[in-house]
Write a structure and sequence with these properties.
unfolded protein binding; single chain; heat shock protein binding; 4-stranded mixed β-sheet; 11 helices; Chaperone protein DnaJ; alpha+beta; ATP binding; HSP40/DNAj peptide-binding domain
Length: 389
């Protein structure tokens, strides 16, 4: 995509956010729109596919702090040009390549420092020979979601991931031309992507209208990608979920995002993991947690209880006189991560009160209550009640 096309788009409007939106707001808006317009959910819907590509492109710029800074600076300097872009030529009016004006070109003295860097990054710089190199643009990052169960999150898993996303066109190899043909160098700009024009004492350059700033012309566009060099395709990747992954954690697969432009590196694929809760176990960092119902006599008299783990079972000793709610720690039975860190199993003891008692159990409890009448289980509260009587 040429600089003129790139800067002429309103990426904030594409995602439906304001220009001062936070990174989280941008991400949330992208994920919502990408999900709604994903090709897998809109088979055969050309408009949805077009919208999916547009929001992916917008997110690729606005999610990158450096690209967003350049984009915002250009918007501030040129102003929103509506359909005609940001101050670029529309009908007969001539536009300027501000990258040439403010950039430090070879053979020219001075420049405008950081401003030249920003604009030069967006529009390219002219060299001594007068040619320009279209700036390579790294591919946009892509994000997708997977759902795994609790045990897979603890122990790790290898999953197939079916992904539909923009990728290098397999038919033309990314050059945009129909197989058997090749793009030709633009005769108007000589392959530079820019044409020069004079205005008074100044000489300016602007994106070539014939090749749209690309430097090449495709006479026979590829039927699959329409000359863009990028098409939406479905691919299957194998994703390794590391042991101990947290819910909502992202896993980065380098180079598996959208392809770059102009020979640049592709973006990355981020897999967001959603972990289903377990019916028995919980998690606190690297520790597994479990609540075990116990009887009053097990707490009062002490003993040994059997507790399940993800790998089997363990015996846990309960000291006499243990209070309900006490947490016992079983070393090394928690989550082991790839870095070698290991958690424990935290066992919370919770007294279970029977809903009904038979005559024998009721008589035994009444005898116990009578025998333990001298023991006040709440002395502080009893004392306070007496003070206020």
């Amino acid at each position: 995509m040429s600089a003129r096309e790139w800067i002429g788009k309103d990426f904030y409007r594409e995602l439906g956010v304001s220009s001062d939106a936070s990174a989280d707001e941008i991400k949330k808006a992208y994920r919502k729109l990408a999900k709604e317009n994903h090709p897998d959910a809109n088979a055969g819907n050309a408009e949805a596919e077009k919208k999916f590509k547009a929001v992916s492109e917008a997110y690729g710029v606005l999610s990158d702090s450096a690209k967003r800074k350049e984009y915002d600076e250009a918007r501030r300097l040129f102003g929103s040009g509506g359909p005609g872009g940001f101050g670029f030529p529309g009908g007969g009016a001539g536009g300027t390549d501000f990258g040439d004006i403010f950039g430090n070109a070879a053979g020219q003295g001075g420049g405008f420092g950081g401003l030249g860097d920003i604009l030069g990054g967006l529009f390219g710089r002219r060299g001594a020979a007068g040619a320009t190199a279209n700036r390579a643009q790294r591919g946009a990052d892509v994000e997708t979601d997977v759902r795994i169960d609790f045990v897979e999150a603890v122990k790790g898993a290898t999953l197939p991931l079916r992904l539909s996303s923009p990728a290098t066109c397999a038919t033309c190899g990314g050059n945009g031309a129909k197989p058997g043909t090749t793009p030709r160098t633009c005769g108007t700009c000589g392959g530079s992507g820019l044409v020069s024009r004079s205005q008074g004492a100044f000489a300016f350059s602007e994106p070539c209208r014939d090749c749209r700033g690309r430097g090449t012309i495709i006479d026979n566009p590829c039927g699959e990608c329409g000359g863009e060099g990028i098409s939406t395709r479905t691919r299957t990747l194998t994703v390794r979920i590391p042991a101990g992954v947290d819910d909502d954690q992202r896993i980065r697969l380098a180079g598996q995002g959208e392809p770059g432009r102009g020979g640049a590196q592709p973006g990355d694929l981020y897999v967001r993991v959603h972990v289903a809760p377990h019916a028995v176990f919980g998690r606190s960092g690297n520790d597994l947690t479990i609540t075990v119902p116990v009887s009053f006599t097990e707490l009062a008299l002490g003993g040994t209880i059997t507790v399940p783990t993800l790998d089997g079972k363990v015996s846990v000793k309960v000291p006499p006189g243990t209070a309900s709610g006490r947490v016992l720690r079983v070393r090394g039975k928690g989550i082991t991560k790839r870095d070698g860190t290991q958690g424990d199993l935290l066992v919370t003891l919770q007294v279970a009160v029977p809903a009904r008692l038979d005559d024998k159990a009721r008589a035994a409890l009444e005898s116990y209550a009578e025998a333990s009448a001298q023991h006040d289980p709440r002395p502080e509260i009893t004392a306070l009640i007496r003070e206020r009587s």
